[in-house]
Write a structure and sequence with these properties.
Elements (H helix, E strand, L loop, with lengths): L1 E12 L2 E13 L4 E5 L6 H8 L7 E6 L2 E2 L5 H8 L2 E5 L10 H11 L4 H15 L14 H13 L5 E5 L7 H18 L2 E6 L2 H7 L2 E6 L2 E7 H5 L3
Parallel strand pairs: 3-8, 3-9, 6-7, 7-8
Antiparallel strand pairs: 1-2, 1-4, 4-5, 9-10
Helix pairs in contact: 3-4, 3-5, 4-5, 5-6
Bound molecules: adenosine-5'-diphosphate (2 copies).
One adenosine-5'-diphosphate (ADP) binds next to β1, β2 and α1.
Length: about 230
């Protein structure tokens, strides 16, 4: 589903070249929950930005469902990116819009009719468990509810891949578990492929099938969660 081949990203800094992602090769299977864990500065954010086409690699390639993200631009990149959706640590909601209008936003951009949008938003609100909160504004929601809006919005246009950027890092432990359970539920019900980055071991242990450990831009270990984290 997702293929990273010898992927590298170098930044020019005042101190010379900085290799943020260093020759990463990995693939994420259809329907898998794949975690990338590492300390701050390991290169996780750069990797996820390469995955969704926000950054261009210095070398190597990113392919999602057979379509190369890394070398595409314009219409081809837009069409490749329609398969990919993302949720964020700080939710990135539109603060002046209600819950249902936040979720409806990507549908509006996609040119979906008002009637169809209403129907789809209702389905999504049920899916993420926000029934009754349709008219609330983000500032009236708890952190967990905000992330539920983020998830519903990300799913609106039926993506094939959901990227999660530290999606539970701003939440308390109990809310974290509820959101992780929702992600597992969505993965099972919709067969959605999930790739997440995190610095939290708990997130990996709780929901990931496989994990890659990043250090200084490189993947230093990769395997099933049991293989990597089971201490003998
Ligand atoms: P993580 O998400 O694991 O904390 P990042 O991908 O944010 O890691 O950063 C990896 C390295 O790349 C860090 O040393 C960071 O300072 C550097 N870096 C990230 N983005 C840029 C940029 N736009 N310009 C220069 N250096 C960057
Ligand atoms: P928009 O609704 O177009 O995003 P705003 O001016 O409402 O524009 O918000 C701009 C940004 O400010 C938001 O994307 C968010 O990051 C931040 N922000 C606004 N209101 C809040 C809030 N109540 N809590 C946290 N962040 C906020």
């Amino acid at each position: 589903m997702i293929q990273l081949q010898n992927l590298s990203k170098t930044f020019q800094t005042s101190n010379g070249q900085l290799i943020a992602v260093d020759d990463v090769t990995l693939s994420v299977e259809q329907g898998e929950i794949f975690g990338i864990i590492g300390y701050s500065g390991a290169g996780k954010s750069t990797l996820i930005r390469l995955l969704n086409g926000l950054e261009k690699p210095t070398s190597g390639s990113v392919t999602v469902n057979g379509q190369e993200i890394s070398s595409s631009s314009g219409q081809a990149l837009r069409s490749a990116r329609q398969k990919i959706s993302m949720i964020f640590q700080h939710f990135n909601l539109l603060w002046s819009r209600t819950v249902e209008d936040n979720i409806s936003f990507p549908l509006e951009i996609a040119g979906i009719s008002k009637t169809k949008r209403k129907e789809r938003v209702k389905e999504l609100i049920e899916l993420v468990g926000l029934t009754g909160r349709e008219s609330a504004f983000p500032s009236q929601l708890s952190g967990g509810q905000k992330q539920r809006v983020g998830i519903a919005r990300a799913l609106a246009n039926n993506p094939e891949v959901l990227l999660c950027d530290e999606a539970t890092s701003a939440l308390d432990p109990e809310t974290t578990d509820q959101i992780l359970e929702l992600l597992v539920d969505i993965n099972k019900r919709l067969g959605l492929t999930i790739a997440l980055i995190t610095h939290e071991m708990h997130v990996i242990r709780k929901i990931c099938h496989r994990v890659a450990v990043m250090e200084a831009g490189k993947v230093v270990e990769m395997g099933s969660v049991l293989e990597i984290f089971q201490t003998p």
